[in-house]
């Protein structure tokens, strides 16, 4: 089982991050693979906290935007 870390989610949602392209590539590869993978609940909660914090992302995401992105 592959567990996706919070940082991968943050990088994938931050186009200004130098790791953005790589993080998006990893998530896309996992989504299309036969591997068992998951987004652990603690990582999702931490992602929500980090991505909505104005000192981390400028501008920060809203909770609704993050929820929509995670559902996708």
Structure description:
The chain has 72 residues and is mainly alpha-helical. It has one domain. The chain is 56% helix and 6% strand. The chain has four helices and two strands; from the N terminus they run βααβαα. The protein has helices at residues 6-13, 20-31, 41-51, 63-71; strands spanning 2-3, 37-38. The protein has a two-stranded parallel sheet with strand order 1-2. Helix 1 packs parallel to helix 3. It is globular and about 35 Å long. The model has no long low-confidence stretch (mean pLDDT 90).
Q: What is the CA-atom radius of gyration, in angstroms?
A: 12 Å
Which structural class matches the secondary elements? mainly alpha
How many strand elements? 2
Task: Label the overall shape.
Answer: globular
Mean pLDDT: 90
Query: How many separate structural domains?
Result: 1
Low-confidence stretches: none
Per DSSP, the total helix count is 4
Helical content band: 55-70%
Order of helices and strands: EHHEHH
Strand residues, percent: 5-15%
**How can the largest sheet be summarized?**
2 strands, parallel
- Measured between the Cα atoms of the first and last residue, the distance is 20 Å
Strand arrangement, largest sheet?
Answer: 1-2
